[in-house]
Amino acid sequence: MHIRKRDQNTQWVAGLLAQLAGIKRNDVSFCGLKDRFAVTTQWYSLYLPGKELSSEQLQHSDFDILAMARNNKKLRRGMHAGNAFRLVLKEFAALDEHYPEIDARLNAIAATGVPNYFGEQRFGHHCGNLHQAQSLIERDQLKGNRRGTGMYLSAARSWLYNLVLAERLQQNCWSQPFAGEREPSGPLWGRGRSTSSGELDSLEQAILADWQPWCYALEHAGLKQERRALVLHPRAMHWQREAVDQLALSFELAGGSYATVVLREIAELFRPGIEPL
């Protein structure tokens, strides 16, 4: 089912679909979470072997059904190739006065990319997911146990990655690969040997030296060591002024990347002492 929703989160709509279809919540799946405070579209799959349901039976005021089709596979997390965004920045007070600088900044972003941080939403309200991860680690409740803790494990892993990216940004070595790297990348911590070596391995070990309890917990929670690109390249990026104080942006991002980190690089332009990328 292709669904369009406004101001509703992905999990809530999945629960509604399960109720309307008369199936278990676990029989409704999707590829990823979409922002709640937005108009978003995404695909859901409902496990309905031998059962036919009409769009009328699945209608609800919290969403619109755009399309329905049969398929022999369920959707799984991360299966989607990416996401497309259209954003309008309103009440942008500096837009009229500083548009040449903003236009130059956006051209630089389109050409060279931005730091591929995990966005703030990854960490929950007031970083609550990180506080919960710390609590679980202190109580030694993550070893071999990912059931019910996946969100907190993911947040902890993302935080360690962000620390490495922030330091490489500080050292101005975030967009150029070290020896042995195909592309600049940071660790998604877990079990197994890191693929970083030499100077890069020494740098990452030094950055994460004070976070060894977190590294240890992630290793023993069953997660595998992985790498994530440090540079995020928005695709098909376009922008235009829609009013004196409105800027419309559209771009596409690979799965697992955040539109908010692209917007962040526009806001950075107006912080004292910050130079364009």
How would you spell out the order of helices and strands?
EHEEEEHEHHEHHEEEEH
Category by helix and strand content: alpha+beta
Q: If classified by CATH, what would the architecture of the largest domain be?
A: 2-Layer Sandwich
Strand order across the largest sheet: 2-3-1-4
CATH H-level homologous superfamily name of the largest domain? TruD, insertion domain
Secondary structure tally: strands: 11
CATH class assignment of the largest domain: Alpha Beta
What average pLDDT do the residues reach?
Answer: 89
Radius of gyration: 21 Å
Largest sheet: number of strands, sense, barrel closure: 4 strands, antiparallel
Structural features:
Alpha-Beta Plaits; 277 residues; 3 domains; single chain; 11 strands; 7 helices; alpha+beta
Describe the protein in words.
By secondary structure, the protein is an alpha+beta fold. It folds into 3 domains: 2-67, Alpha-Beta Plaits (2-Layer Sandwich), CATH 3.30.70.3160; 82-112 and 233-270, Alpha-Beta Plaits; 123-227, TruD, insertion domain (Pseudouridine synthase), CATH 3.30.2340. Helices cover 32% and strands 21% of the residues. The two termini are 41 Å apart.
